[in-house]
């Protein structure tokens, strides 16, 4: 009986509430003491005092037991809640997560990972994680193998998963071993989809080596492929040829039909060239309306056939606008690598000379450099251009046009970019794409840049008499960065014209700066100490952009037109532009958007916080007199409503 009474008390201590425990205890005490109080003797034959003593002990022990039970229940609830939260975090994680056993089989996968490969989480269980890698590579297996050799490390890799439909997904894996007493070591793998990031990287990598408009190789890639082929020719035997072609009268297309029609024609010409050669040949747009082809195999007759085929096909194409058509032709210079080996002049210079021989012979034709000749053709276009550049320097036949740059906050044009042109013999203005490459190859760019600097600072002095805060951007060639004569010309012109150096903004393109970062940094630091400012042009076109922004001194970041021209229709371009603006702002740099050609573009860049706008919507490059009349002598600031 005593045991039953005590068990009843302990039972309520373990399972009941505190009120039930005290009620039970009171009932037991009443049962024990009532007969003694009423009848003077207990109902039980054993000593009721002993029973009362044990009951008292139970009363002391029972609350302690109850508190222990409550604490254990609370801990169980906390553990259950924590496990529930962990499971929810695992299942609802925005990126893929998997738990693997020591053999690499999936113990559990979350919804995000299953969606990534196009199955359900249950479908993935018990399958090897490597079952979701493409059969042709072992990236995931190699990733997991690293944990075997370094069990305490965190393995990080970029791999490829293949989904249920056979498509590949680029992912970043981060894995580590989690010790588990019941299951042994388990591996937790975090999987992040980086497909979009890879697409951005691929696009940027493509932009480094390809022309934005036509998608063809650019001059950089063309030069690299040319050097590779020249090396093969030196190791084995000369084979193949270089074709340089220039469109005849292309300027008439732009002047009569507009730049859009001209751009469309250039794209079509690029397609013609691709179809006219083999897939192993290299087709590039070298600038403006000039193209280059590396025919990687064949003799001179074969090169002549390819070149003539190109001329014939281009003749069939026309640019059309509102029913008006303009046809263009092409002049092609062809030089085989065998013919070039007979001369000390490089093959591009020979092809350039030969191309202008075709132009002088009447255009719309092919000129071949005969093999075995002792020297280049007598009439050399390259030498002619070199002579024209030298004469322009001597006779002051270069001219500067000014393109306005608008402040997005005020709508005012208080800045411009100076753009170089060469006045031809018949009075036409020749754009720099036609002669700067030759000037660079001939070593004339420091002299050209010195002329541009002196003239630009003279313009600054003249304009700032009327607009004291006017600033001017001036482009510098990579060949002039660090050149003592150019640096001396800057100091002399600033002193001579009494111009505040702060008004002079020197533009360096990313490709110019990359030639020698240390040289560019020292050059910029010396001039920055004087007060000159710097702008990084074409920002975003290559992988080096952010490196240069970190290591070089710049006040302005000019966003490459590739990310501006379609920013109103492309979410990708808008995202990239927003990122560039944010980085520049965090670094204390101001941004300039180039290629602003439509009100919709202006509205987008205003929303994204760009500081300045430049492009045909703001104004085309024009002479100083026209620039003053249109932008500086007006009664009110030039404001373009978005």
TrEMBL record:
SMART domains: EAL (SM00052), GGDEF (SM00267), PAS (SM00091). Transmembrane segments: none annotated. Residues 238-371 form the GGDEF domain. Residues 382-635 form the EAL domain. Gene3D superfamilies: 3.30.70.270, EAL domain, PAS domain. Residues 82-151 form the PAS domain. Pfam families: EAL, GGDEF, PAS_4. Signal peptide: none annotated. PANTHER family: BIOFILM ARCHITECTURE MAINTENANCE PROTEIN MBAA (PTHR44757:SF2), DIGUANYLATE CYCLASE DGCP (PTHR44757). This is EAL domain-containing protein. It comes from Nocardioides piscis. The lineage of its organism: Bacteria, Bacillati, Actinomycetota, Actinomycetes, Propionibacteriales.
């Amino acid at each position: 009986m005593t045991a039953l009474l005590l068990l009843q008390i302990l039972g309520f201590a373990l399972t009941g509430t505190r009120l039930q425990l005290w009620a039970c205890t009171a009932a037991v005490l009443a049962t024990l003491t009532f007969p003694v109080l009423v009848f003077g003797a207990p109902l039980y034959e054993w000593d009721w005092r002993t029973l009362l003593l044990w009951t008292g002990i139970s009363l002391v022990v029972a609350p302690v037991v109850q508190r222990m039970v409550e604490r254990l229940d609370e801990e169980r609830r906390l553990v259950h809640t924590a496990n529930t939260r962990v499971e929810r975090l695992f299942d609802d994680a925005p990126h893929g997560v998997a738990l693997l056993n020591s053999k690499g089989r999936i113990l559990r996968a979350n919804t995000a990972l299953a969606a990534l490969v196009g199955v359900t989480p249950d479908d993935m269980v018990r399958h090897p994680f490597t079952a979701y890698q493409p059969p042709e590579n072992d990236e995931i297996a190699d990733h997991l193998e690293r944990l075997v050799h370094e069990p305490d490390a965190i393995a990080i890799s970029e791999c490829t998963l293949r989904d249920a439909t056979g498509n590949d997904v680029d992912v970043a894996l981060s894995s580590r071993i989690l010790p588990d007493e019941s299951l042994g070591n388990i591996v937790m793998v975090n999987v992040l989809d980086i497909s979009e990031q890879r697409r951005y990287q691929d696009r940027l990598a493509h932009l480094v080596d390809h022309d934005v408009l036509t998608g063809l190789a650019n001059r950089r890639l063309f030069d690299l492929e040319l050097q590779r082929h020249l090396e093969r020719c030196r190791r084995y035997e000369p084979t193949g040829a270089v074709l340089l072609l220039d469109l005849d009268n292309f300027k008439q297309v732009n002047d009569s039909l507009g730049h859009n029609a001209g751009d469309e024609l250039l794209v079509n010409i690029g397609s013609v060239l691709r179809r006219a050669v083999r897939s192993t040949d290299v087709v590039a747009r070298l600038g403006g309306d000039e193209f280059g082809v590396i025919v990687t195999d064949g003799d001179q007759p074969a090169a002549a056939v390819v070149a003539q085929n190109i001329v014939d096909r281009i003749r069939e194409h026309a640019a059309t606008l509102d029913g008006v058509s303009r046809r263009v032709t092409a002049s092609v210079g062809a030089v085989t690598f065998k013919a070039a080996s007979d001369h000390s002049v490089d093959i591009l210079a020979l092809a350039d000379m030969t191309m202008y021989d075709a132009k002088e012979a009447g255009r719309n034709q092919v000129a071949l450099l005969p093999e075995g000749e002792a020297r280049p053709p007598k009439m050399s276009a390259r030498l002619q251009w070199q002579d024209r550049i030298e004469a322009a320097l001597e006779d002051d036949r270069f001219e500067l046009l000014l393109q306005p740059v608008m402040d997005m906050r005020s709508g005012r044009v208080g800045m411009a970019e100076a753009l170089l042109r060469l006045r031809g013999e018949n009075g036409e203005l020749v754009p720099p794409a036609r002669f700067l490459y030759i000037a660079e190859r001939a070593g004339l760019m420091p002299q050209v840049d010195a002329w541009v600097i002196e003239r630009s600072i003279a313009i600054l002095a003249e304009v700032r008499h009327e607009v004291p805060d006017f600033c001017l951007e001036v482009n510098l060639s990579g060949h002039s960065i660090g050149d003592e004569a150019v640096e001396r010309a800057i100091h002399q012109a600033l002193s001579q014209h009494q111009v505040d150096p702060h008004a002079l903004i020197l533009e360096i393109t990313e490709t110019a700066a990359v030639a020698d970062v240390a040289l560019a940094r020292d050059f910029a630091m010396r001039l920055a100490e004087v007060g000159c400012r710097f702008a990084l042009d074409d920002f975003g076109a290559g992988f080096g952009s952010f490196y240069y922004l970190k290591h070089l001194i710049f006040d302005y970041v000019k966003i490459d037109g590739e990310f501006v021209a379609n920013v109103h229709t492309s979410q990708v371009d808008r995202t990239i532009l927003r990122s560039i603006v944010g980085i520049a702002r965090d670094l204390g740099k101001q941004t300039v958007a180039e290629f602003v050609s439509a009100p919709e573009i202006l509205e987008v860049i205003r929303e994204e916080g760009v500081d300045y706008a430049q492009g045909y919507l703001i104004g085309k490059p024009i002479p100083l007199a026209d620039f003053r009349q249109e932008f500086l002598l007006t009664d009110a600031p030039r404001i373009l409503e978005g």
